[in-house]
Amino acid sequence: xxxxxxxxxxxxxxxxxxxxxxxxxxxxxxxxxxxxxxxxxxxxxxxxxxxxxxxxxxxxxxxxxxxxxxxxxxxxxxxxxxxxxxxxxxxxxxxxxxxxxxxxxxxxxxxxxxx
Amino acid sequence: xxxxxxxxxxxxxxxxxxxxxxxxxxxxxxxxxxxxxxxxxxxxxxxxxxxxxxxxxxxxxxxxxxxxxxxxxxxxxxxxxxxxxxxxxxxxxxxxxxxxxxxxxxxxxxxxxxxx
Lengths: 115, 116
What we know:
The complex is a heterodimer. Chain A is mainly beta. Chain A has strands at 5-7, 10-13, 19-24, 31-37, 44-50, 53-56, 65-68, 75-79, 88-95, 105-106, 110-114. Chain A starts with a strand and ends with a strand. Chain B is an all-beta fold. Helix content of chain B is 0%, strand content 53%. Chain B is built from no helices and 11 strands. In chain B, a hairpin with a 2-residue loop joins strand 6 and strand 7. Classes of the chains: A mainly beta, B mainly beta. The A-B interface holds A 3-4, 31, 40-45, 48, 50, 55-56, 91, 95, 98-104, 106-109 and B 4, 6, 31-32, 34, 36, 42-46, 49, 51, 89, 91, 93, 96, 99-109.
């Protein structure tokens, strides 16, 4: 089966600019996650969707970050305006079910550099 | 909230040696502990996981052990090979008040280098 797709793979912007990332989960996966992975750290959950509803966005900096999954399939994550500390890899993941033991499948990530 | 600590941050071994990576967690209600392998520039991939009702799980050269009382779990890789070189992340699932949805809190990662 096809894996989780993300685009773009790389993005370089200047601070205060805006940027958007796109994710297409594995077909049939109801749960979608966005993670931020800063260099040298583990992934940190930003937001989790169940179909098109938000399950958890407690760690999403809502003053500058937003995400949507309007039709319960693809998702976009937006940063506006970007700060230097937003430089990181943004990983999208999806899982089939909602339970605790469902494997999360990760996409290749988008590496964001904010200058 | 849940806090996961992982040690060591870097581990260098010779091919054929064993490698052990250790993690501790803070939320005693966590009951699922996956391990992910991330090769340079690639996506994290699940390599093994363990549930809290099991003390040990093995899959060929890798094994994971869990000590619920001490709130720590470990990844063991035997007969290491150069292709085992990667960053390994442990994770735990803290309690969610509203639903049973899975939430993973990751450790900071261990860079394993296996020298031929």
